[in-house]
Amino acid sequence: MKQYVVDELRPEDHNKIKGYLDEHFGPAGFGGIYWVPLDEDLYTDMHKKHTQCQPYYFAIDLGPDAMACELLIRTKNTIKCNCIGYATAEQRNRIITFVDSILEGLGLIT
Fold first, then answer.
1. Do 58 and 95 contact (CB within 8 A), yes or no?
2. I want to staple 68 with a disulfide (CB 3.0 to 4.6 A). Which of 4, 56, 61, 64 is the partner?
């Protein structure tokens, strides 16, 4: 799995990130997984055509000492479809910028 990982989080960093993610994306699902909606302006042509699969998400897995952001664009509507796949360069860059902005906004040094 391709991921963007921020590790060596301190317990207080974890708590700040968890609070932010809970507030903006609801409580974590199984195992600390948060589903973050992909901005529609980042949908590929296939994403736009697959209206039955929309909306699209990427997952953030928050553990006690690390945050891993999967670079896989997926849907909650189906497990297997041609529209599910690794992020494009533009999507990947936006996801990384998004994660970095959370850390910066919370005043966390990584």
1. yes
2. 61
CA angle in degrees (0–180, nearest 5) for 72-73-75:
125
Residue with tokens 């953030």: 60
Q: How far apart are CA 63 and CA 18, in angstroms?
A: 9
pLDDT at residue 14, as a whole number: 95
**Per-residue pLDDT tens over the stretch 40-82:** 999 999 999 999 999 999 999 999 999 999 999 999 998 899 9
**Domain assignments of the chain as residue spans, ordered by start:** 3-105
What's the whole-model pTM score?
0.91
Residue 20: count of CB within 10 angstroms of its CB: 16
- Three-state DSSP state, 45: helix
Architecture of the domain defined by 3-105: 2-Layer Sandwich (3.30)
What is the three-class DSSP state of 26? coil
Confidence of residue 109 (pLDDT cuts 50, 70, 90): confident
